[in-house]
UniProtKB/TrEMBL annotation:
Pfam family, one: RWD
Domain RWD: 1-70
Entry-linked Gene3D superfamilies: Ubiquitin Conjugating Enzyme, Zinc/RING finger domain, C3HC4 (zinc finger)
Protein's name according to its UniProt entry: RWD domain-containing protein
Length: 290
């Protein structure tokens, strides 16, 4: 096993051993104290089955089987924190020891996500595996949830490709809690958000009414800062004056970036001016003929 699943078992014997139970103490640099305390009590119960007989080998065999059958023991502290601080309401986190994975389900209104998070043998040296099982959010959010969750997990185990001189030394850290925290926050965040341009709700109450056509006027667009607009609203906002220094989010003031709108503010302004000139020419013709 990896160092993250290793532990030391210490035994002390009274003069009348094995008639009485040996004193058992478990130690580990990485397994959480709470799990060790629980495992110690299980070991004591196991030893009680063999009073009057040698107990050490039986207890060691029990501990070995427990570690082999509980691959999630290397992240028990993270799981405990997640259940205590992050899981609430109808959200669920189910453990799957046989597959060394956890199943996360997050629900907000009629919307939900379900992810399978796999813990590798050499965790936390390696990042968790992330697989979307079910999701009824629009495709734009499905892509965002999975891609960003994978990126968060990667940053936990890989140093930045370009390190700045003042950056602190890279420290490897477990990736499960940051990923779960992200997925829970994001799944709850978007259901009730309004379009920052028209003020109307972006997601319909019934997921069956989601607009999946990414060119449709009412399709939801998520901008870089995390706020949302309708496709038509964002297009109108970006292509309308003023154009100086680009466009900023109505909510947080951050500069708006989006793959669909990559033109510079100068180009957008020039196109808008050209369109206005064409419209004036058309209006003049209409006035002349009327």
């Amino acid at each position: 096993k990896t160092k993250y699943k290793q532990l030391v078992a210490c035994f002390q014997f009274s003069p009348d051993y094995p008639t009485t139970r040996a004193l058992i103490e478990l130690k580990s640099r990485y397994i959480s104290p709470k799990l060790l305390d629980g495992l110690t009590r299980l070991c004591e119960n196991e030893a009680d089955k063999y009073l009057g007989k040698p107990q050490v080998l039986q207890v060691l065999r029990f501990v070995r089987n427990f570690v082999e059958e509980s691959p999630l023991c290397c992240c028990s502290e993270e799981i405990s924190t997640i259940k205590k601080k992050l899981i609430a309401g109808s959200d669920e986190l189910k453990l799957r020891q046989k597959t060394s994975s956890v199943v996360l389900k997050v629900k907000q209104g009629q919307y939900f996500i379900k992810y399978n998070l796999t813990v590798p043998e050499n965790y936390p040296d390696k990042q968790i595996g992330i697989e979307e099982k079910e999701c009824n959010y629009p495709p734009v959010f499905q892509r965002w949830f999975t891609a960003q969750a994978v990126e968060i997990a990667r940053r936990c185990v890989e140093p930045p490709a370009k390190r700045r001189p003042k950056d602190p030394p890279f420290v490897l850290k477990p990736s499960m809690e940051p990923v779960v925290s992200f997925l829970i926050d994001e799944a709850h965040k978007y259901v009730d958000l309004d379009c920052k341009f028209c003020g109307k709700k972006t997601l319909p109450d019934d997921p069956k009414n989601i607009v999946c056509d990414e060119s449709a006027e009412m399709h939801i667009e998520r901008i870089y800062c995390g706020h949302v607009y309708h496709n038509k609203c964002l297009d109108t906002f970006i292509k309308s004056p003023p154009f100086q220094k680009g466009k900023n989010c109505h909510t947080c003031g951050a500069r708006i970036y989006h793959d669909k709108w990559k033109l510079t503010s100068e180009t957008v302004e020039a196109r808008w001016a050209h369109k206005q000139a064409k419209q004036r020419e058309l209006d003049e013709v209409v006035d002349f003929l009327s």
